[in-house]
């Protein structure tokens, strides 16, 4: 399985075979939000730029934007997830994936953090 | 290191969309000033503000609040009936000590209000979760209980929630909306009417909205090691076109009815 990359805004990306990139939210971010109650994901076909809002997630007290870690087109959405938000906490890097993106520029991935750099970020 | 100045705007009454537009831009101001900023404001008419994802149809169908204008906040949480409350917006950059987690800013601002209310004789505290808590998805904020809400106990009666807040966590800043219920709102039916400080004080009212807010902000400043700086003009006075764009967004029925 390919190494995860992370955005500073706490989304993760996993490059997949076929050039797609799976996107999710880090375990740290899910735990910080606590008690998730609602999620809105983008429609398939939406074009996003890195750093733009990809969706929104609400916990009991806060609404947070989910940012696209790479630019591209949303080609698949985990449509079951908004009705099974516990999955985000139970398996954030597996069944808790959000969308699959067809990146415009795979080289953008190189600008993201690796696991060690992300771990340092959340500890700082 | 964050700014050691706490700018405070005491803003005149405005309608819902204008207030929401100003609050969203307040978050940018927190980033620009690199520190906590607070805006205290009023409403030009009693108004219901809905949480970012609350179903509009549920509010529209609620007979107890019928006839009141509805605006949708960018922040989460439940619906608030404004008019007899003290409303504030506060914002910090994400890197601020109170910006890291939702509960940090929530508890920081609420703990300061607990101190103020205790000084006025209320048995106030931060709410701790309990099995007896009402449903978390009730339409109205003051019908819900969340960890850190400001509640006031009176004898053996269930504690009354008098202050609740909710956040919008943006890319670089956190915006927190909050409301202190000063008295029960006479414009709504009993089903939506919650007791406020005036009713809980039972005639022993030795405060005004302004005096409570001033003492609250002073407490926040002490907790944060900040010096309060009252701003001479309304926050929206110098925003120009940026405010107009956001105002239009919050007036758009597509935003209000987004869910």
Mean pLDDT of chain B: 94
Report mean pLDDT of chain A, rounded to a whole number.
Answer: 93
Q: How many discrete domains of chain B?
A: 1
CATH fold call of chain B: BirA Bifunctional Protein, domain 2
The coarse silhouette of chain A is globular
What structural class results from the helix and strand content of chain B?
alpha/beta
Tally of DSSP helical segments of chain A: 3
What is the CATH fold-level name of chain A? OB fold (Dihydrolipoamide Acetyltransferase, E2P)
Instruction: Give me the CATH architecture of chain A, please.
Output: Beta Barrel
Our count of domains of chain A comes out at 1
Task: Give the biggest beta sheet of chain B.
Answer: 8 strands, mixed
Number of strands of chain A: 9
Can you give the helix content of chain A as a percent range? Answer: 10-25%
Biggest chain-to-chain interface with counts? A-B, 19 and 24 residues
CATH homologous superfamily classification of chain A: RNA polymerase II/Efflux pump adaptor protein, barrel-sandwich hybrid domain
Low-confidence stretches of chain B: none
Tell me which CATH architecture of chain B applies here.
2-Layer Sandwich
Order of helices and strands of chain B: EHEEHEEEHEEEEHHEHH
Descriptive account of the structure:
The complex is a heterodimer of chains A (124) and B (259). Chain A is of the alpha+beta class. Chain A has three helices and nine strands. In chain A, the strands form two sheets. In chain A, strands 1-2-3-9-8-5 form a six-stranded antiparallel sheet. Chain A is globular. The mean pLDDT of chain A is 93. The longest helix of chain B is centred in the first third of the chain and has 18 residues, at 16-33. Helices cover 30% and strands 25% of the residues of chain B. Chain B is globular. Chain B has one domain: BirA Bifunctional Protein, domain 2, CATH 3.30.930.10. With 259 residues, chain B is an alpha/beta fold. The chains are: A alpha+beta (124), B alpha/beta (259). The A-B interface holds A 9, 32-35, 37-38, 40, 51, 56, 58-65, 67 and B 51-53, 74-77, 100-103, 106, 136-137, 146, 148, 165-171, 174. β7 (62-67) of chain A pairs parallel with β9 (157-169) of chain B, so a sheet runs across the interface.
